[in-house]
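#struct-help
A.M.: can someone run this one for me? Single chain, 229 residues.
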Amino acid sequence: MADQDGTVARAWRALLETARATVRDGLVVGTSGNVSVRVTPGGPGGGTARDLVLITPTGVPYDQLGPEDTVAVTPDGRQVLGRLKPTSELPLHLAVYRTGTARAVVHTHAPHATAVSTLVDTLPPVHYMAAAFGGPVRTAPYALYGTRELAAHLLEALRDRTGCLLRNHGTVTTGDTLGQALERTAQLEWMCRVWLLARSVPGHTPALLDTGRLAAAADRLRGYGQPEG
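D.P.: on it. Structure tokens below:
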């Protein structure tokens, strides 16, 4: 497959950097978790009809992967690049791309978030950063990993959200870029840790933010950071 402007090669390097960061930051152990990014290769005739999904392969440590290990599939799941088999969670990633505008997906087994997934159907809004996810983060019902059932549960939990928990499993976050999706994973893990710490204090119940306060935070967050240009 031709990569006339180097789009695929650059995206694969960024994907590997993101995947390795999930290990370095303690969000996954070993070969657990997976990362994907949707790209549109350049050159004549480029367009969304030619989009590819680059995705981590199954069962290979991220630090052992290099440029020659690039794995790419079409949005319908047909592998068009690579000798390694894609992650078993391919249905989950493709479901996200088929139903929304996300360009990157990060799935981890972050420990605090996974612990919270066993306790609640929705992460209680203990911090205003819940607004950055579109509202309180939901927990998708349990289903066996790698199945269409899990993908269906995920889509419902992600409705109007940019992240969710998977019951007894882990996290999924989406973004316009790999960096954004990874940052959301870190924020979700941090919020879960905060809630677990707060609820562990005997005789006290964590104060939660109501919908009005979350809406106000969402408005403020839209203007956060340096102006473009």
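A.M.: thanks! Helices lie at 7-24, 90-99, 111-117, 148-157, 178-199, 211-221.
D.P.: also worth noting: Residues 178-199 form the longest helix (22 residues).
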